Amino acid sequence: MIVFNALFLFMPKKLSSIELFSTCMFAMVLQQIVDNVFDLLLDWYGYFAPGIQWPYLIVSIGIYPAVNAIFLNYYQFTRSFAQRFWYIVGWCVFAVVYEWLAIKSGYFYHHQWKLWHSAIVYPFLFLTLLMILSLVRGMVKKSVR
Length: 145
Hints:
Number of helices: 5
Number of domains: 1
Number of strands: 2
Radius of gyration: 16 Å
Order of helices and strands: HHEHHEH
Helix content: over 70%
Largest sheet: 2 strands, antiparallel
């Protein structure tokens, strides 16, 4: 959590404040909805132990916004399709490895959920973040007129 937030704080920002704020808020809301359904309702996975704990809130607020901002900040919209594709693949590999390490360290656990499920879902999550950023940019551009 400290590393992600340090990277976020010291990286040269390519996104505006409203882009960072709105995409980070979207990422946190989406994460909360998905985790509430998959953890609390379905018991497929969870953080630390079943139910809601304070450390979960700290982790969710401390990790997801920073990772979202780092991913979007360095995404190169002007690069070739292949370069953008491999950028997303690289982030998906990173996310799966990070999740595996989280399981091994005990702050995340799986029940019915498997790591390969995450590997399938992560590309869609990263693409969703890119779509939200594009939506926000369009809304900002429209409001400036």
